[in-house]
């Protein structure tokens, strides 16, 4: 990976980080689409509740991503040479994959292996306790 590419990764990660934490970098014009300006008061409640549900489930999914974004940024800073390598097998990750997911940690192959259930402890059903 070239310095320019690493730089691009850093920009992508910083933008993602800003998006996920809600802290938009000062340079970027913030979106003025929230509360104060949006909408009248008619029929707003149900929609708001729905939006909140969506937002909170999205946040839950995003938590893991944020952690990985932070980790990737740390790696870029502390160990830039290893950035862009699969943490499992050490293969260089395709740049296209990194551009889509700059926080990605594994190559497609290793990710696939990790996603497969390993036959860990089975989840207890509620009925087991009755
Ligand atoms: Zn790998």
Automatic annotation (TrEMBL):
Keywords: Metal-binding, Zinc, Zinc-finger
Domain Zinc finger DksA/TraR C4-type: 82-115
Region (Disordered): 20-46
Molecular function terms, GO-annotated: zinc ion binding
Biased composition (Basic and acidic residues): 29-40
Pfam families to which the protein is assigned, alphabetical: zf-dskA_traR
InterPro entries, alphabetized: Znf_C4-type_bac (IPR020460), Znf_DskA_TraR (IPR000962)
SUPFAM superfamilies xref list: Glucocorticoid receptor-like (DNA-binding domain) (SSF57716)
Keyword Zinc part of the UniProt annotation: yes
Zinc finger (dksA C4-type) residue numbers: 86-110
Entries under PANTHER family matching the protein: GENERAL STRESS PROTEIN 16O, RNA POLYMERASE-BINDING TRANSCRIPTION FACTOR DKSA-RELATED
Protein name, per record: C4-type zinc finger protein, DksA/TraR family protein
Originating organism: Hyalangium minutum
């Amino acid at each position: 990976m070239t310095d320019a590419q690493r730089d691009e990764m850093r920009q992508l990660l910083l933008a993602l980080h800003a998006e996920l934490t809600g802290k938009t970098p000062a340079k970027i014009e913030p979106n003025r689409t929230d509360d104060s300006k949006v909408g009248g008061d008619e029929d707003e409640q149900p929609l708001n509740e729905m939006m909140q549900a969506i937002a909170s489930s999205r946040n839950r999914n995003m938590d893991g991503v944020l952690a990985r974004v932070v980790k990737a940024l740390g790696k870029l800073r502390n160990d830039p040479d290893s950035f862009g390598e699969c943490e499992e097998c050490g293969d260089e990750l395709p740049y296209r994959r990194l551009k889509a997911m700059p926080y990605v940690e594994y190559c497609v192959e290793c990710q696939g292996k990790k996603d497969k259930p390993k036959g860990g402890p089975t989840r207890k059903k509620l009925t087991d306790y009755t």
